[in-house]
Amino acid sequence: MFQASKTRLQSRPSLAAHAVGVAFVKRFLFAAALALAPLSIASAASDMPSAAPAAEGLSASKLEAMSTAIKAGQFQKITSVLVARHGKLVFEAYYDDGKPDGGMEARRNTRSVTKTVTAMLAAAAIDRGAIPNVDAPIKPYLKGRPPAAAPDPRKDKVTVEDLMTMSSIAECDDDNQFSRGNEERMYLIEDWVGFYLDLPVRGFPDWVQKPADAPYGRSFSYCTAGVTTLGAVVQGAVGKPLPVFAREALLGPLGIEGERWQVSPLGLAQGGGGLGLRSRDLLKLGQLYLDGGKWNGRQVLPASFVKAATSPHANARPETDYGYLIWLQTFSGHKAWAMSGTGGNKVVIVPDLGIVAVITTANFDVRQPHAITERLLTEHILAAVEP
């Protein structure tokens, strides 16, 4: 069973393109090989069934008004919006159709939405017994590495759950440009896992809330390097490359094909961001959580993990908690789970309404892109629910 530890992850645009240019050929060949990989379950390859909005209690006219507003530029650069209710696709629109790398078949680089996928893969590894539980220390799964800098016995005790809740002891904060663990610094070196392991222990001066005083007993600090390392932990535990395991345990069963992983200079698939998936694929991942880990009648992820993942484990900011690499928010009075990435890219699951919404964007150079996406969600998608 998955449960919280008895003891008690919106990433900015990446500079990876600058840091890993020398590895371009390796990444291209790697992605090409993955695109040719067979599905593990061919019968699961179908997309979600569709229905008219009215049949599932949504106003078609309000959704069309949303589309008109998007086309008029009221939400900047929205590239796609998909809405499912009660397991049926009721709205689907692409606002970059006809453009290079746009439309239905585009693999969306939704940045840190990938983090939730990495949590799912950790769950699959635990479900298979490759990792005993979320309390397992990560060190045994990172074999053959040189000694870490700034050695400290507390670093040896960092667990899978610490990485999934953005609350490890490492001094790592993507929202602080001065942090030694800031994501942009990681892309400047070739060993991204080593970057995380070498970080010093985080300090807690008087003006910073200590874990013992924080809600849920954890101090939240957004850290992409930690999730990158979690991907390596899963890879080490299952004994196969992360993309191979992802296809076997998650993407294949959901009928997701042609995924595109970003890869570090040393060849590690980036679990912390940049996984390229279609908007329909993102919708499937959201529906998987809404349905307690089931897809087409098959239990792909344990229901107990989904429940634990969508329960609060850390307080990220006022009125926003954090689960296992997923944001726990409230929109228009409804509790929601959000897979979130730079630019306001989001997969939002609203359990009490039976809604999954995918919003992809190219709002990487505008102010408050997440607020833009959330306004689209509340003013149009949730407002389309009929009483």
Automatic annotation (TrEMBL):
An MF annotation (GO) of this entry: hydrolase activity
Classification via SUPFAM superfamilies: beta-lactamase/transpeptidase-like (SSF56601)
Cytoplasm listed as a keyword: no
InterPro entries with a match to the protein in the record: Beta-lactam-related, Beta-lactam/transpept-like, Diverse_Enzym_Activities
Superkingdom assignment: Bacteria
UniProt entry keywords in alphabetical sequence: Hydrolase
Beta-lactamase-related domain mapped to chain residues: 80-365
PANTHER family, sorted: BETA-LACTAMASE-RELATED, BETA-LACTAMASE-RELATED DOMAIN-CONTAINING PROTEIN
Name listed for the protein in its UniProt record: Serine hydrolase
Organism, scientific name: Caulobacter radicis
